[in-house]
Design goal:
CATH topology: Sodium/glucose cotransporter
Largest sheet: none
CATH architecture: Up-down Bundle
Number of domains: 1
Distance between the termini: 80 Å
Order of helices and strands: HHHHHHHHHHHHHHHHHHHH
Strand content: under 5%
Length: about 500
């Protein structure tokens, strides 16, 4: 048991192999549109798998089993909302995206409201995506750090230093194919990496069950004794005030999941960029809706792994829930198998990281640089700048990951909290533009700002659960935008 030379070789071969595969599949790009959209020739099923690999990634692998270990299956309620939210985006937003030759989600806001709204929303996206990806990158460093600590060369180092080394190694290999291959390399490596990390997790579950006296029966007995199979929480037991503080009640999960999914898959360039890489709105809709069902199954699978680990470790307390699965992989699996599963974990992280780098670069170029400084630039200059922005964002993401090293909270919840604070304003602005015809740029910016301020106040000064954030933020944005439109219209009429 433990990490051996064979495991290190497997991980190294994987890292080098995926970088080479990404460079080859990326091919040669002729301009920024090719670099960011892959000439719109990518099959819908590949896009669907890439969405799943990107949004769940290392956080699912590491953190979801930890949630089930500490609590129960309540987290699965949120996936019902995820599916509903995707259906709304598929039929409300995607047709609008495909009507124009759009490269980013925020071009739609430019066409509807104006350039200031586009720049504002793009900046909010850049901040949100940077923080959320920093959390994910840190999550992936957890098992690598555990591996490194077992070796004498790292034994005297502070934990923070070990994490810095792990984060830097993951980023370096991911950057190679993201920089050279663009979105085409990102999507095709996502597909391969999803197969690897799910395969690795399946093998790990088999090994956990093999090491229990009665296999699955042991898991059932241990979990049932602590009500860990509970997957619905109505949330009404503590009164109305308490109801809004429960993260995973049925209503907050379905409503929160739906609005979070509408925001992430309808307004976040990380996902929208993939949806724009298919050849038609119909294929884009299929890719998006299918991804919701894939994600639900994947979450359930990783929650079950958490229950199995609860039985395996006999309810042993852990300082960080995120360390539970990592500890099992590194310490309990036979030589060779640990390396394969850690490679799978790295696969999930690299898929998310590469997508973030590419989407951050695309939004920076298309939404912030070109409208003001590069309207007449050639395709070749755009491509060169795309790669420069990729370098800059890679450095920023690594620096952001370092910030979360000292955190003890579950990384999946940190990531979702961060996203929910800004997604409310973003989603509300898109809804204001797509559903209502009268609001102008002034109204959109007023609503967006109000939505952001409300959510920042909720985040810092209230006990309200993050699952309510996107719903409250988007509702505030729409209401304030409509009120602003009416007030100014009346003022002008007088």
């Amino acid at each position: 048991m433990g990490f051996t030379t064979i495991d290190y070789i497997i991980v190294l071969v994987y890292l080098v192999g995926v970088a080479v595969f990404g460079v080859i599949t990326g091919g040669k790009q002729t301009g920024a549109k090719d670099y960011f959209l892959g000439s719109r020739k990518i099959p819908w099923l590949a896009v669907s798998f890439a969405i799943v690999a990107t949004e769940t990634s290392a956080i699912t692998f590491i953190s979801i089993p930890g949630l089930a270990y500490l609590t129960n299956l309540n987290f699965i309620q949120i996936t019902v909302g995820y599916i509903l939210g995707r259906i709304v985006v598929a039929f409300l937003f995607l047709p609008s995206y495909y009507r124009g030759e759009l490269v980013t989600a925020y071009t739609l806001l430019d066409q509807r409201f104006g350039s200031k709204t586009r720049s504002y929303s793009s900046i909010v996206f850049l901040i949100t995506r940077t923080l959320a990806t920093g959390v994910r990158l840190f999550a992936t460093a957890i098992p690598l750090a555990i591996i490194f600590k077992g070796y004498q060369i790292f034994s005297g180092m502070p934990d923070a230093t070990v994490y810095v080394i792990a984060i830097s190694i993951i980023t370096a290999f991911t950057f190679i194919y993201t920089y050279t291959g663009g979105i085409r390399a990102v999507i095709w490596t996502d597909v391969i990496q999803m197969a690897i990390y799910l395969g690795g997790a399946a093998v790990a579950l088999y090994m956990i069950l093999s090491n229990l006296p009665e296999g699955w029966t042991t898991v059932v007995n241990a979990a049932a004794a602590e009500s860990k199979f509970q997957f619905i929480d109505w949330g009404f037991s503590g009164g109305i005030a308490h109801f809004f503080t429960i993260k995973y009640s049925l209503i907050s999960s379905v409503l929160g999941g739906a609005f979070l999914s509408m925001a992430s898959h309808g307004t976040d360039q990380l996902i929208v960029q993939r949806l724009l890489a298919t050849d038609s709105v119909k294929n884009s809709q299929k890719a998006l809706i299918a991804s919701g069902f894939f994600v639900a199954l994947q979450f359930l699978f990783f929650l079950i792994i958490g229950l199995a680990l609860y039985a395996f470790y006999n309810a042993m307390p852990f300082h960080k829930a995120d360390e539970v699965f990592s500890k099992f992989i590194v310490e309990q699996l036979p030589s060779g198998l640990s390396g394969f599963i850690v490679a799978g974990l790295l696969a999930s992280a690299m898929g998310s990281l590469s997508g973030s780098i590419n989407s951050l670069a695309s939004s920076t170029l298309v939404d912030l640089y070109k409208p003001y400084f590069g309207k007449n630039d050639s395709d070749q200059k755009d491509l060169k700048l795309s790669r420069i922005f990729s370098i800059i964002w890679t450095v920023i993401l690594v620096a952001t990951a370092f910030i979360f090293i000292q955190s003890s909270q579950s990384v999946v919840e940190i990531a979702l909290q961060i996203a929910s604070v800004t997604y409310g304003g973003l989603l509300g602005t898109f809804l204001l533009g797509v559903i209502f015809k009268k609001p102008t740029q002034r109204d959109a910016i007023a609503g967006f700002t109000a939505g952001l301020l409300i959510l920042v106040c909720l985040f810092f000064f209230s006990p309200i659960a993050w699952t309510w954030y996107t719903f409250i933020g988007s509702g505030t944005t729409v209401v304030v935008g409509l009120v602003s439109e009416r007030v100014f219209r009346k003022a002008h009429s007088h």
